[in-house]
Design a protein that fits this description.
The complex is a heterodimer of chains A (297) and B (286). Chain A is α/β, with parallel strands linked by helices and 297 residues long. Chain A contains 10 helices and 13 strands. Chain A has 2 domains: 213 residues, Rossmann fold (3-Layer(aba) Sandwich); 63 residues, Alpha-L RNA-binding motif (Alpha-Beta Plaits, 2-Layer Sandwich). Chain A starts with a strand and ends with a helix. The chains are: A alpha/beta (297), B mainly alpha (286).
């Protein structure tokens, strides 16, 4: 895939505090790039740098995008909508900014895409989800090729989150828009991102493809049995895995094993098996393990 | 830049705050004319004194009728920078500027279109203030002289001078708004500035006899009378501290007060705009 954005050694400091430390990052065309980090890790600062809102102390970034208004668009922290205007008027202002001429039909079309009504309701009276969708609608007017959404799920209820997520996936698939989405709500990113970048203390810890992340994600099996005493060493010996006894009924095997073989083994020991479950390390676990690694270093 | 201006103008026309500001400006112009009329009535002064009173109000010897424009102009000069500064600060607050930057406009385009927009808003405000001041000034004080071409020209000059004055204060508001990015401070500063200037004016009125130092003369270029900023300050210093520190003759460059205004005002405005521009170009939008 073609590169859309390449960030080279960007550093930034506020006062004496280094908030970005030689950040390198690459976003490819067609990606939904999940930018993951804790609060204060440097996500928004990096987004501000690449959107031109702040000037970095050092480093550079290059976009592989045509030069025209609206080709890149974004919502940084909060949507730039006018609360005293209704949805249509907000879009009309944006259309004027973009220099669009026959914008009425396009506004209608985009309102349908983001599923917002064309009525007199002021944006100030919109729900948070509606505001986000209106903001995205404003961005869509410019036919963007790259959209940056900083914490788009912030403050949204589960329904609102789902709506925004579905909209992002649809725009990515149908219009080929590349996204950079920062969030600390990892379960949301997990459902849409195709690539991840992990940032901590102003440093990029890891960039990884979603498929690779799921491949490296560790597998574990949780068993619920009638008694867990005196089985640990035998299981570890027979199956060559780590066996963590959680309590008298639960134990976890932290590797890929044949669960049926384990069940047969347990039955042979006269134990009753109530249930077993295969668990795969999720984005959250992966992020936490990266953080642990960072702290140990 | 034309697109930027169009969009900003559309938003400004839809802005309730600016509409309220216009109503308040008109109301204040009328109120001020009323107050002057009331003072004239309770003072029980005759025609000549009223004329003198008019000259004092105007500060430049233009006949009473023109006081309407002056009254309105003074109101606008005070109130417009406040309202427009609030408008600018809201631009920062609601992330409009950020949106423009992200979508690809340069900082220069954003800044200079903003300057042009505020120039236009300033004109509208001042026009409303002067119109109402003029109408009610005429109703309360009469025309007070013959309407000649020169007379109308004086009104026009008065309007232009008020415009220059107000725009200078407004530009200061823009620079401050960009620098502080805080609605509270941005609003307080123009009000405080106006208050301090009014205070100076009051002191000057109390201390100087024979010549009127109006509030705006403290900003130098607003002086269509024979009094320049430095003479005002000189007079003020002389009257307040009974000492002759500076002499006007030593520092006067241009004899013609109008010429002084027309030269100093663009210099001051350009300086303010460029200071604001340099700041805007490198400011970090956190």
């Amino acid at each position: 895939m073609d590169e859309l954005l390449r960030i080279n050694n960007i550093s930034m400091k506020y006062g004496n505090l280094m908030v970005l430390k030689n950040v390198n990052m690459t976003i490819h065309k067609g990606d939904i790039y999940g930018f993951v980090g804790r609060n204060g890790a440097g996500k928004t600062t990096l987004i501000r740098v690449i959107t031109g809102l702040i000037n970095p102390c050092s480093g550079s970034y290059e976009f592989n995008l045509p030069k025209r208004l609206g080709v890149m668009s974004g919502i940084v922290e909060a949507p730039a909508i006018k609360e005293n205007l209704n949805g249509y008027e907000n879009l009309k202002t944006q259309a004027m900014l973009l220099g669009l001429k026959d914008y009425e039909a396009k506004i209608e079309e985009i309102l349908k895409i983001v599923e917002l009504p064309n009525d007199d309701k002021k944006a100030g009276n919109y729900s948070l989800g509606m505001r986000q969708r209106l903001a995205i609608a404003c961005l869509l007017l410019g036919n963007p090729e790259f959209m940056i959404l900083d914490e788009p799920a912030n403050g949204l209820d589960p329904k609102g989150m789902k709506e925004i997520r579905e909209l992002i996936i649809r725009l990515n698939k149908e219009r080929g828009i590349t996204f950079l989405i920062s969030s600390h709500i990892l379960s949301e990113l997990d459902k849409m991102a195709t690539t991840y970048g992990f940032i901590e203390n102003g440093k990029i810890m890891k960039e990884i493809d979603a498929v690779d992340l799921h491949n490296v994600g560790k597998v574990a099996y949780a068993f619920k049995v009638s008694d867990t005493s005196n089985i640990k060493s035998d299981i570890e010996k027979v199956f060559n895995v780590n066996c963590n006894i959680v309590n008298e009924n639960y134990f976890i095997l932290d590797n890929e094993i044949d669960p049926i073989a384990v069940c047969i083994f347990l039955k042979g020991r006269g134990l009753e098996i109530f249930s077993f479950e295969r668990k795969k390390e999720e984005l959250e676990d992966y992020f936490i393990s990266l953080l642990k690694g960072e702290e140990e270093q | 830049m034309r697109n930027l201006l169009r969009a900003d103008l559309y938003r400004a026309l839809k802005n309730k705050l600016l509409r309220i500001g216009l109503i308040i400006t008109a109301a204040l112009a009328i109120f001020q004319a009323l107050v002057y009329k009331f003072i004239a009535i309770i003072s029980d002064i005759g025609e000549e004194e009223i004329d003198m009173f008019g000259q004092v109000l105007n500060g430049n010897g233009i006949a009473l009728w023109n006081n309407g424009a002056s009254i309105g102009g003074n109101t606008a000069a005070f109130i417009v920078p406040i309202f427009v500064t609030i408008f600018i600060l809201r631009e920062f607050g609601d992330r409009t500027v950020r949106n423009k930057l992200i979508m690809g406009y340069t900082r220069s385009q954003i800044y200079f279109s903003s300057i042009l927009l505020h120039l236009f808003l300033m004109f509208v405000y001042l026009f409303v203030a002067s119109f109402f001041g003029l109408v009610f000034g005429t109703i309360f004080f009469g025309i007070g002289g013959e309407i000649t071409l020169g007379f109308i020209a004086m009104i026009f000059v008065s309007f232009v001078l008020q415009f220059i004055l107000s725009y200078t204060v407004l530009c200061l508001g823009i620079v401050l708004s960009i620098n502080v990015q805080s609605p509270v401070i941005g609003i307080i500063i123009p009000i405080a500035l106006s208050f301090v200037a009014s205070l100076i004016n009051t002191i000057a009125l109390l201390g100087v006899s024979g010549s009127f130092i109006n509030f705006w003369s403290c900003f130098s270029f607003y002086q269509s009378s024979e009094i320049s900023l430095m003479t005002n300050i000189t007079e003020l210093v002389k009257q307040t501290f009974a000492t002759d520190v500076i002499t006007y003759e030593n520092i006067a460059i241009f004899g013609n007060p109008l010429l002084r205004i027309l030269i100093t005002a663009p210099v001051v405005i350009t300086t303010e705009i460029m200071v604001g521009y340099v700041k805007f170009k490198y400011i970090n939008f956190k």
